[in-house]
Write a structure and sequence with these properties.
The chain has 466 residues and is mainly alpha-helical. It has 21 helices and 2 strands. It has a two-stranded antiparallel ribbon with strand order 1-2. Strand 1 and strand 2 form a beta hairpin.
């Protein structure tokens, strides 16, 4: 089979643009492709220079015709072919233009049986470009391989075992310098590779995560015109992932693997990442995998996520421990994340009836985010819950302190929902304020300062209900 492909590629190199059908029986030995010795201009420098000049002239005329005059293309190809075979080191442009000429021949082929021959020739042009001119800074090897992969995929969509490795290699070499078409090609070729039963679907998810990172980086860091191209590719990939990576399908793929080897950290990390990207963080498997990841390499982010999920699951002791870790692991420079962690921790402590700890956490929130209205609501709720334990002669004096907090929350809240919650809480406890007679009977004066004792230990104002 290999000899046949070599023969076809050699034949394509010899056939001209307009007369390829008539000459399809011409043979060519592979050891002549390309030859040219080690000299820049080959074994016959004079003939090489002449052919270079002729091909360049015809190519320019063809270019000037907007690549429509096939007679000029045929003439250019004839002299280009000699240079490609006999003096392949003569010019890098030989390969840039060679791709255009061979692609044009393929585009205009009338005999489909010659398609493979010309596609092989096109691939050979890319390979020789890499062989003879590998050190171009503007168009490095990874870039050329990417273009080669795109063309191979274009003409041989059923050959995933051939174009997938090319896309993969290009990506590995280019990373965030990869062209949008190559990033899309790398992903779609992996999907095709999987559908052709050459790999497990895990490889699709792995490729997706790699490509996703580059697409996000370029979308966020390039000028708008370029960023738009990467965003478009990202959208196209997402439309495919929606079909093959639903939460149910992810669980079906990963759960047996994780249950079989729950201590596999690499598997756990990959599971966590793909579940996060696909917004499948509410499933039990994600939680289990994240616990494993956190055990091996605890971070503030994993501690926070586990704390939040444990809280949602009603596992408050676990939530408390994770969120305490998050508050310690987030540096002060990440004040917003620090505040988020303390806010959840304050809520957890409140649920566990650890009032002092809850208030301390809420006050920490205000240290890092002074205008967090919800922190004041939490403290107000704590004071309301303490009404039975912090009375003065049967008066629920802690309501006065709670009212201060709810009023403060309402005054700074930017979120309408939080503001309404604060106002509703305030209205509710006002109905439980004592009457004028009740405060008079206890030697208290309306509007006077009052020190709420018990664990609250706050100064407030004596008030009555309307």
């Amino acid at each position: 089979m290999k000899k046949v492909k070599i023969f076809l590629a050699a034949t394509a190199l010899i056939i001209g643009f307009s007369n390829y059908a008539a000459q399809a029986n011409i043979t060519f030995k592979f050891n002549q492709i390309p030859d040219g010795g080690s000299s820049k201009y080959g074994n016959d420098s004079s003939k090489c220079v002449t052919n270079l000049s002729l091909y360049s002239d015809y190519y320019k005329q063809w270019s000037d015709s907007k690549y429509k005059n096939n007679d000029l293309a045929n003439s250019a190809y004839k002299y280009w072919r000699y240079c490609f075979l006999e003096c392949p080191m003569s010019s890098q442009n030989l390969y840039n233009r060679g791709v255009i000429m061979v692609s044009n021949i393929i585009k205009n082929l009338k005999d489909s049986t010659l398609m493979d021959a010309y596609v092989d020739t096109l691939m050979m042009v890319y390979e020789r470009r890499i062989e003879y001119f590998p050190n171009n800074k503007k168009y490095p090897v990874g870039y050329i391989i990417g273009r080669q992969a795109v063309d191979l995929y274009k003409y041989h969509k059923d050959s995933s075992n051939q174009f997938y490795p090319l896309f993969k290699k290009s990506f590995e070499l280019m990373q965030d310098k990869s062209e949008p078409t190559v990033l899309y090609g790398y992903f779609i070729s992996t999907v095709k590779y999987w559908k052709d039963a050459h790999c497990d679907i895990d490889l699709v998810f792995e490729t997706y995560m790699k490509v996703y990172d580059i697409l996000q980086y370029n979308t966020n860091n390039l000028v708008p015109e370029e960023a738009k191209k990467y965003k478009s590719v990202s959208d196209n990939i997402e439309s495919i992932m929606v079909q093959i990576a639903t939460c149910d399908k992810l669980v079906k793929v990963f759960e047996p693997k994780f249950d079989a080897n729950p201590s596999d950290t690499i598997l756990a990390r990959n599971l966590v990442r793909i579940f996060e990207l696909r917004k499948c963080t509410n499933v039990a498997l994600y939680y289990k995998a994240l616990v494993q990841v956190h055990k091996i390499a605890p971070t503030a982010a994993t501690a926070y996520s586990l704390g939040k999920m444990s809280m949602e699951k009603g596992i408050y002791e676990n939530a408390k421990n994770y969120l305490q870790s998050a508050t310690e692991l987030f540096p002060d420079s990440m004040s917003e994340r620090k505040a988020d962690s303390y806010l959840l921790l304050a809520d957890v402590y409140k649920t566990l009836n650890q009032f002092t700890n809850s208030r301390n956490a809420a006050l920490k929130v205000l240290k890092y985010r002074p205008n967090e209205a919800y922190a004041y609501i939490i403290i107000g709720d704590l004071y309301v819950k303490s009404a039975g334990d912090c009375k003065f002669k049967d008066l629920a004096v802690s309501y006065w302190a709670a009212a201060d907090k709810f009023a403060q929350a309402a005054s700074i809240a930017k979120d309408p929902k939080v503001k309404n919650a604060a106002l509703n809480n305030l209205a509710r406890i006002k109905r439980s304020f004592p009457t004028q007679q009740e405060i008079f009977m206890r030697n208290l004066a309306l509007g006077s300062t009052y020190q709420v004792e018990c664990w609250i230990n706050e100064t407030t104002t004596v008030r009555i209900r309307n």
